[in-house]
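Deliverable D2.4 — example input (C-alpha cells):
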C-alpha cells in the first residue's frame, strides 16, 4: 500500500503543500458541527499527526474516528498553528474497524493493566517509545562491536552444558517421563539428543571457542533461566550481549564494558531525543541529567572486600547480614550505587566460592578476577570476568563444584591448545533498557515477558 511514514512528514519540510497518503491508528479524535480532528499514529514516530476534516466538504464513514480504528488518509500536508505539520484530509478510508470496547481508551492506563493486554499495549506512547529505544540500542550495540573488529557469532540455544552451573537450565525433551525407564540416564538416552539437553543460560562457553580463533567476538541472542525469582528484574527469557576478548585481562575488559555502555547510550541519546524526553517527563525525573553524567564521568571500580567494609561501617540495618564471603544482596547493591557512589560501580574480586567455575583464580587463593557492574535503580546489569586459562586450576574448580568433566570436553581442550589470557562479559539487554528508560519493571521493556508461572 503506497504511503509515507508519518515520521518522514514531520522531518522533511518538502512535504508541505504536497498531497500525501498516510496510514495509521486513531489515537484521539473530536468532532464539532463543521470540523473534525483525528490524531493518527503509525508507529514510526512518538508524535501523532493531526488530520483535519472539513465536515461540510468531505464525507467519511461514521465509525472512522473511533479510537483504535486503522485508517488510510489522503490529504495536503500543511503547517499547523503550533508550528508542526497537519493534514487537510481529502479522502478517508477505513482499513480496520475498531469497536467501542477497544481496551485502550483516552485515559492513561497503568503499566500493570497494560501487561494484561500485551498484544495492544504496543499501541501506547510508552511502548512506542520503549520499543524504538530498544531497537536503536540494539543497532548501537552492533555498531559498537562491528566498528571495532569484533566478529558477531550466534551461539547455540540448545546445549548439553550448563555455563553458570546454577541448575537453572530449562530442559529440552521430546518425551514425557515414564517409569518404564530404569533411571535418568536410560531416560535421556532415549530422548531426542540421546543425552540430557537444555536451553542455554549463556553463550559464553561457545563464545570462548570463537574468541580463541577470531580474537574478539560478541553474541547477541536470547538466554534462558529457570530461576524462581519473581522480581522486577528477572525474566525467564532475556536477551544477552556477550563479548569475549582474547589477550585481555580483567581490567582491559572493564575498560571495554565502560566504553561500550557510554558509546551506546550516547548513540541512543542522539537518535531518540523525543523518547528520552518522554521518559524523563513521565517515568524518571532527572533521567536526562543521569544519562549525561553516565557518558561524561568515570565509573567507580570497587574491590569486593572494600565494599564489605563500606557496608559494615554504614550503620545501616540490612535484612541480610553483611559478611565477607557472602553474595551482595539487592539492598547492599542499592546502598553502594545509590547512596554511596550515586553512579555505576564495578565491584571486583569476589570470593571464589560464590562465583562460577570458569573465573580466573587470583593469587590470594580466595578470590576470582570477576566483576559485576551495579547501577542505581536497577542493580546488576553486567556479569564479567577474566577466564581461568590454567587447565589444572579449572579442573580443580569443576571438581569442587561436582561438575561432570565430560560435559565440557571442548571447553577444556581450549586450555590445552594455544590457550591465552582472555576475558568477557554478559550484559542483560532488558536490564540496560530499564536503566536508560527509567522503566522500573523488566516486564515493560520486552514484548512478551516470560516469568515464573506466566507465559502467553
Ligand atoms: O551474571 P550472569 O549470570 O553472567 C553470565 O551469564 C556470564 N556467562 C556472562 C559472561 O561473562 N559472558 O548474567 C549476565 C547478565 C546479568 O548481569 C544480567 O544483566 C543478565 O545477564 N541476566 C538477566 N536478565 C534478566 N533476567 C534474568 N533472569 C537474568 N539473569 C541474568
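Example output (designed residues):
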Amino acid at each position: 500500500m503506497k504511503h509515507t511514514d508519518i515520521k518522514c512528514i514531520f522531518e522533511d519540510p518538502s512535504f508541505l503543500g504536497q498531497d500525501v497518503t498516510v496510514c495509521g491508528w486513531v489515537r484521539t479524535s473530536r468532532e464539532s458541527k463543521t470540523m473534525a480532528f483525528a490524531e493518527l499514529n503509525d508507529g514510526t514516530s512518538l508524535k501523532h499527526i493531526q488530520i483535519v476534516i472539513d465536515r461540510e466538504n468531505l464525507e467519511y464513514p461514521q465509525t472512522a474516528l473511533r479510537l483504535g480504528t486503522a485508517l488510510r488518509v489522503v490529504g495536503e500536508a500543511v503547517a499547523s498553528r503550533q508550528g508542526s505539520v497537519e493534514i487537510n484530509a481529502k479522502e478517508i478510508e477505513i482499513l480496520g474497524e475498531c469497536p467501542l470496547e477497544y481496551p485502550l481508551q483516552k485515559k492513561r492506563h497503568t503499566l500493570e493493566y497494560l501487561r494484561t493486554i500485551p498484544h495492544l499495549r504496543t499501541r501506547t506512547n510508552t511502548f512506542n517509545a520503549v520499543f524504538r529505544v530498544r531497537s536503536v540500542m540494539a543497532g548501537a550495540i552492533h555498531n559498537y562491536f562491528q566498528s571495532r573488529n569484533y566478529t558477531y557469532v550466534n551461539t547455540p540455544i540448545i546445549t548439553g552444558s550448563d555455563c553458570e552451573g546454577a541448575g537453572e537450565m530449562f530442559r529440552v525433551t521430546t518425551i514425557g517421563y515414564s517409569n518404564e525407564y530404569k533411571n535418568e540416564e536410560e531416560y535421556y538416552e532415549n530422548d531426542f539428543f540421546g543425552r540430557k539437553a537444555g536451553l542455554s543460560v549463556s553463550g559464553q562457553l561457545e563464545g570462548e571457542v570463537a574468541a580463541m580463533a577470531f580474537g574478539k567476538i560478541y553474541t547477541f541472542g536470547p538466554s534462558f533461566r529457570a530461576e524462581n525469582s519473581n522480581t522486577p528484574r528477572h525474566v525467564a527469557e532475556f536477551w544477552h550481549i556477550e563479548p569475549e576478548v582474547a589477550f585481555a585481562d580483567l581490567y582491559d575488559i572493564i575498560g571495554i564494558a565502560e566504553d561500550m555502555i557510554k558509546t551506546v547510550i550516547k548513540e541512543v541519546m542522539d537518535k531518540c531525543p523525543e523518547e528520552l524526553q518522554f521518559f524523563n517527563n513521565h517515568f524518571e525525573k532527572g533521567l536526562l541529567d543521569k544519562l549525561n553524567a553516565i557518558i561524561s564521568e568515570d565509573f567507580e571500580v570497587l574491590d569486593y572486600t572494600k565494599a564489605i567494609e563500606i557496608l559494615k561501617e554504614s550503620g545501616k540495618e540490612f535484612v541480610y547480614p553483611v559478611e565477607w564471603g557472602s553474595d551482595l544482596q539487592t539492598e547492599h547493591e542499592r546502598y553502594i550505587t545509590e547512596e554511596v557512589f550515586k553512579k555505576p560501580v564495578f565491584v571486583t574480586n569476589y570470593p571464589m566460592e560464590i562465583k562460577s567455575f570458569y573465573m580466573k583464580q587470583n593469587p590470594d587463593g580466595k578470590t576470582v578476577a570477576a566483576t559485576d557492574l551495579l547501577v542505581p535503580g536497577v542493580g546488576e546489569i553486567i556479569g564479567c570476568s577474566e577466564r581461568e586459562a590454567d587447565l589444572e586450576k579449572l579442573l580443580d574448580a569443576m571438581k569442587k563444584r561436582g561438575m561432570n568433566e565430560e560435559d565440557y570436553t571442548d571447553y577444556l581442550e581450549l586450555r590445552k591448545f594455544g590457550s591465552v589470557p582472555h576475558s568477557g562479559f554478559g550484559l542483560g539487554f532488558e536490564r540496560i533498557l530499564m536503566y536508560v528508560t527509567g522503566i522500573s519493571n523488566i516486564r515493560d521493556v520486552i514484548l512478551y515477558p516470560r516469568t515464573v508461572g506466566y507465559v502467553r
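The mean pLDDT is 96.
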